[in-house]
Design a protein that fits this description.
This protein is of the alpha+beta class. It has one domain: Ribosomal protein L30/L7 (Ribosomal Protein L30, Chain: A), CATH 3.30.1390.20. It is built from 2 helices and 3 strands; from the N terminus they run E-H-E-H-E. It has a 3-stranded antiparallel sheet, with no helix packed on it. The chain is globular, with a radius of gyration of 11 Å.
């Protein structure tokens, strides 16, 4: 599987609780924090649900 670098670029303030929990589950929570994850269907779904708050790069 490929890896992706996920960076949070927008705040979770005034966002639905579901989106806040998804950001936490991805290992993010502060602006400009980045994590590297294995790309699998579960991670793809999480990325899709908060795509307006993150930037995704292939590694």
């Amino acid at each position: 599987m490929s890896q992706v670098k996920i960076t949070q670029v927008k705040s979770t303030i005034k966002r639905p609780e579901v989106q806040k929990r998804t950001i936490k589950a991805l290992g993010l929570g502060k602006l400009n924090r980045s994590v590297v994850k294995e790309l699998n269907p579960a991670i793809q779904g999480m990325i899709r649900s908060v795509q307006h708050m993150i930037v995704v790069e292939n590694i």
